[in-house]
Amino acid sequence: MTRIIDGKAISAQIKEELKVRVSELKKEGKDICLAVIQVGSDPASSVYVNNKKRACEFIGIRSLSYELEENTSEEKLLEMIHELNDRADVNGILVQLPLPEHINEDKILKAIHPKKDVDGFHPQNVGALCIGELGFVSCTPAGIIQLLKRSGVEIEGKECVIIGRSNIVGKPMAMLLLRENGTVTVTHSRTRNLKEVCRRADILVVAIGKPKMITKEYVKEGAVVIDVGIHRNENNKLCGDVDYDDVAPICSAITPVPGGVGPMTIAMLMHNCVESIKLQ
Ligand code: NDP
Fold first, then answer.
1. Given CB 3.0 to 4.6 Å as the disulfide criterion, which of 101, 183, 233, 268 pairs with 142?
2. What number does the ligand 1 atom closest to the CA of 208 have?
3. What is the pLDDT along the chain (280 residues), one digit of tens a residue?
4. Alpha carbon distance 226, 38 (integer Å)
5. CATH 3.40.50.10860 for the 28-125 domain, yes or no
6. φ, ψ dihedrals at 8, nearest 5°
7. Is the pTM of this model over 0.85?
8. Can 227 be counted among the known catalytic residues?
């Protein structure tokens, strides 16, 4: 029987735990505050930003919302980040991506103080993850580790194959699986014999950005499959990078899309906001 890893239920559990932690911190006089900046009004970004604000409200984190015009200059945005970096009452700063083309994303992400970088994208936090020091970890891969652990999937000693080497998913995922003592292989568009390499995996993490590309030919019988992809198919329904109907019957556990990895990303963002107290 294939187990469906329920990201909605696991993320709800994490948010409940965080809510308790935040109310304890409040009793000690510690309030947590997240500043969320959105430039422009891309509808998908607005949905993500609203979901983040709602999660803050549920957990008891104060959120400050900055909605800037599409034509806001890079200088103006940098100025705002510097102000928020200096404010003692702001624990986390999040700039919703993507940014308009005239703004250098890299420059903006590097301007956020590493101790307020709750997305975990600053080079200092990426470096900390690589050498096993304390820091913020990118939310999607951190959420995948929680999905695996809370579903009782053992990572230690397992063959873990990741498809994709992006800075926000593939690479931090590799570091986290390594930290959990998995044997890690990272594949990408130049990998030879991708199917063969993937079929070695006990745990296959797919972050390729291609709708339903991964079929059962890529999957070993009994493997655990984590699908990071999010796409809309021809009927405007959400689907992942994995062809779920084809793959689910042969694996031991799989994450659905929607309801798998997606909800975990916000839960881990909230986790990072709460952890910020420790780092600051
Ligand atoms: P990127 O486009 O940044 O990276 C895709 C990776 O896949 C690259 O490393 C690329 O290789 C590799 N790749 C592309 N085509 C192939 C191929 N044919 N064979 C092997 N490797 C290939 O994507 P992201 O990591 O940002 O995101 C991946 C997916 O996850 C997307 O669908 C995205 O929407 C989703 N996502 C979901 C999140 C969530 O909360 N659930 C959060 C973040 C992302 P190369 O480096 O060689 O180009």
1. 268
2. 7
3. 999 999 999 999 999 999 999 999 999 999 999 999 999 999 999 999 999 999 999 999 999 999 999 999 999 999 999 999 999 999 999 999 999 999 999 999 999 999 999 999 999 999 999 999 999 999 999 999 999 999 999 999 999 999 999 999 999 999 999 999 999 999 999 999 999 999 999 999 999 999 999 999 999 999 999 999 999 988 999 999 999 999 999 999 999 999 999 999 999 999 999 999 988 8
4. 29
5. yes
6. -65, -45
7. yes
8. no
Residues touching ligand 1 (Cβ under 6 Å) are 140, 163-166, 168-170, 187-191, 194, 207-210, 228-230, 241, 261-262, 265
Place of tokens 């059962």: 216
The reply to whether 139-262 shares the fold of 28-125 is yes
Put the strands of the sheet holding 33-39 in their side by side order: 62-68, 33-39, 92-95
CATH dotted code for 139-262: 3.40.50.720
Which atom of ligand 1 lies nearest, measured to the CA of 264?
40
146 counts as catalytic: no
Q: Quick one: tokens of 190? A: 């130049």
Nearest to 197 by CA among 155, 153, 162, 157: 162
Determine contact, residues 139/270, Cβ cutoff 8 Å: no
Q: Which of 280, 265, 278 is nearest to 119 (CA)?
A: 265
Domain definitions of the chain by residue range: 28-125, 139-262
Mutate to test the pocket of ligand 1, among 198, 208, 212 (most ligand atoms within 8 A of CB): 208
Kindly give the residue spans of alpha helices, DSSP state H, lying in 69-193. Answer: 74-86, 105-111, 123-130, 139-150, 170-179
* Residue 151, token pair as written in the block: 């579903």
